[in-house]
Specification:
This protein is an alpha+beta fold and 702 residues long. Helices cover 30% and strands 26% of the residues.
Length: 702
């Protein structure tokens, strides 16, 4: 790999930090997986990067891009470890963060709990000013109020300030003036403006999003500066890129400016990888299933695209209850996220019933079988006891697992309290997790207007391939796809994603009152703004125009892509048809009597992605075909039965494997059941056709 150019994808998860290294000259791909270092996440990143540089000799000096995804900013909010943040808002509106939508997320819960606002009330200050919804200035901003607020924040020791004035998305002069004074009088204090972070209506969502941006900004700046400096110290000379929640990547400098856009960066990378393989395989309907060490994420992909949403929350009181968390109104992929990962802890609850998650053993101390001091039984411990994981082959043998420790944890915490064998308890953990995920997935898929039997399940993540066929059978899916390198697929997805940013502009008027020339001029201005957030050269930048449209009087618009320029013949008619189709699909009916309102205009600027091609399978006839066997648990007979153990790297394109079997590779294992047929295709994907009988694990007979 000497004399070539590289790209590196790095995804920090709750348990493991994953790496994909690509040689763009040869197409060669290398991967790595290391335990995450939670207190200093950049350490695990640099461990993997240095190991790669040592193997290749000066590789970082020849690296074109390091693209990074992280859960760091999400954890800052969850753990409330962000900056001491102040809020400047219009006088009379300091309590927007606590009023919220004035709704109870559970009307029948007399003990309902809401999250404390990111900015406490004593650090929220109102200033006299007022801009009307049409942009008219009713009351000018008073500088003396701003100076008083700045002096108050100086004494309070704030590290970051969010500025969110009423209707500033229409006219931002007052916010800009406040920012000017703050930056002059409080140098070193971070500032976030709602007119830049989220210039759209809905006061609560805009204030919350801006407050979160300010809350995480100092942490994001410190972390990205530290990591960029460490990479430069090892010889890297190009920008560090960060995955955004919307599926695009941006420079570290842009991310530092708008860090709230990277709060959901890790899950987006996995969806990008699933979309990449969906297009390659010509499969228009997919269910992306990413199960790592801490969480599982599912996403419906149709025609090569995953749906996006702005109804996103972090730090929910109840994971499955919308409205119980902190809203962040930035574009994210419409995911279902569950507290079911390899490290999820199993226990017997107060009613004597088995429960799993959502809390996780993480990387420290990790599952009991890691031998790092963990004593709680986890999903990984159960999968090891059941034979779905190999004790001596985990991470290619570099991290042996302690089966005895896993059995002890399950026996003491689950089996004995529930009067069952260790094997039955382990199966109970495995099966309960699959059923929990399937129950949530059925509702999620139905809400998207789809049925699971029409979707091929794409399983990846460290634990995803272990559970993919079991989950697919419960859902009624007929086919499972396991891409190459599934255990590090999110880091691979970083290399398939485009470098992309978005800029929005509020419109808020009926479409009939807007001229095509004015909309075209506005779109071109947004294109110029977005292009400046991308690194040069800009001659290859592509633009996509997107509009949020609803019926006049409605509060929840639909996102509709615009084909071509506003001034093109038929552009507006095509927009109306596209909206009608989406409206019918979403609500089940068409209302063509009410005029359309253009709520927000967006422009997405991106560079075309250059996804690596992974060379599939063995190309020789002399690799072994007499696969060894390993006992795996059969719940039907409550005993262990022999299953083939196949090394994925030795499979040939077109070769079939009949279950029961376990397909092993360094970063994961794929479990296929009795009657299932697995084929390696020309793209290196494992394609598993599930048996028509409802087997639930290898070895089940009918």
């Amino acid at each position: 790999m000497q004399g070539s150019t590289y790209r590196i994808g790095v995804d920090i998860g709750g348990t493991f930090t994953d790496f994909t290294f690509v040689n763009d000259a040869t197409g060669e791909v290398a991967v790595d997986k290391r335990l995450t270092t939670p207190e200093h996440p950049e350490r695990a990143v640099m461990e993997g990067v240095r190991a790669f540089a040592d193997r290749q000799g000066g590789a970082l000096a020849q690296t074109l891009a390091v693209i990074h995804a992280t859960t760091l900013l999400t954890n800052v909010v969850l753990e409330r470890k962000g900056a001491r943040t102040g809020l400047i808002t219009t006088e009379g509106f300091r309590d927007v963060l606590e009023f919220g939508r004035e709704l109870r997320y559970d009307v029948y819960d007399p003990f309902i709990v809401f999250r404390e606002p990111i900015v406490p009330r004593d650090l929220r200050v109102g200033v006299r000013e007022r801009v009307l919804v049409n942009g008219e200035v009713l009351e000018p901003l008073r500088d003396e109020d701003v100076h008083a607020a700045v002096e108050f924040f100086r004494r309070a020791g704030v590290q970051s300030i969010a500025i969110c004035l009423l209707h500033s998305y229409v006219r931002d002069e007052h916010e800009q003036r406040i920012a000017e004074i703050v930056r002059r009088e409080l140098p070193g204090v971070e500032v976030s403006l709602s007119s830049e972070v989220h210039p759209e209506p809905k006061e609560y969502e805009r204030t919350s999003t801006t407050a979160v941006d300010a809350y995480v900004k100092p942490t994001a700046s410190r972390y990205l500066d530290q990591l960029s400096g460490d990479l430069r110290g090892e010889g890297y000379r190009n920008p560090l890129f960060v995955m955004l929640s919307n599926g695009g990547a941006a420079t570290a400098e842009t991310t530092k400016r708008f860090p709230v856009q990277a709060v959901e960066s890790g899950p987006a990378a996995g969806v990008e990888a699933a979309m990449h393989y969906g297009v390659k395989l010509g499969m228009p309907r997919l269910l992306s299933f990413d199960m790592g060490g801490t969480t599982a994420k599912l996403c419906v992909v149709l025609d090569g695209r995953a749906a996006r949403t702005r109804d996103f929350e972090v730090d929910r009181v109840h994971r499955f209850k919308p409205g119980s968390g902190i809203p962040i109104a930035t574009p994210v992929y419409d995911l279902l996220e569950l507290g079911s990962g390899g490290g999820s802890i199993a226990r017997v609850d107060g009613l004597g019933l088995l429960s799993v998650g959502p809390d996780s053993a993480g990387s420290v101390p990790g599952p009991a079988c890691y031998g790092r001091g963990g004593a709680e039984p986890t999903i990984t411990d159960a999968d090891l006891v059941l034979g779905f994981l190999g004790a001596d082959s985990f991470l290619g043998g570099s991290m042996p697992l302690d089966r005895a420790a896993a059995e002890t944890a399950i026996r003491e915490r689950i089996a004995e309290p529930m009067s069952m064998s260790v094997e039955e308890a382990a199966w109970g953990i495995h099966n309960l997790v699959n059923e929990t995920m399937a129950s949530a997935a059925r509702v999620y898929v139905a809400e998207k207007g789809q049925t699971p039997r029409d979707l091929a399940l794409v399983g990846f993540g460290g634990a995803g391939p272990v559970h993919a066929t079991g989950l697919a059978r419960k859902l009624g899916c007929r086919k499972v796809i396991v891409p190459p390198l599934p255990g590090v697929m999110s880091s691979f997805g970083l290399l398939t994603a485009p470098l992309a940013v978005e800029r929005p502009r509020n419109v808020g008027k009926p479409l009939s009152l807007l001229s095509a020339d004015h909309l075209e001029q506005m779109s071109r201005q947004l294109e110029e703004e977005a292009m400046l957030l991308l690194p040069p050269p800009h001659d290859r930048v592509r633009f996509e125009r997107i509009v949020d449209v609803c019926r006049v009087g409605q509060a929840y618009p639909l996102e509709v892509p615009l084909s071509g320029a506003w001034t093109d013949d038929g552009a507006l008619a095509a927009l109306e048809r596209s909206f009608a189709e989406q409206y019918a699909a979403h609500y089940g009916r068409v209302d063509d009597r009410t005029a359309l309102e253009l709520v927000t205009l967006r422009v997405r600027a991106s560079y075309p992605p250059s996804a690596p091609t992974i060379v599939p399978g063995a190309d020789t006839e002399d690799v072994r075909r007499d696969w060894p066997t390993r006992p795996v648990y059969d719940p039907a007979s409550k005993r262990f039965v022999p299953a083939q153990v196949v090394q994925r790297g030795q499979l040939r394109v077109g070769e079939e494997i009949h279950g029961p079997a376990v397909i092993e590779e360094r970063e994961s294992s794929t479990v296929i059941g009795q009657g299932d047929i697995l084929t390696l295709n020309e793209f290196g994907c494992l394609v598993i056709d599930l048996a028509t009988e409802q087997h639930q694990t290898p070895g089940v007979t009918t």
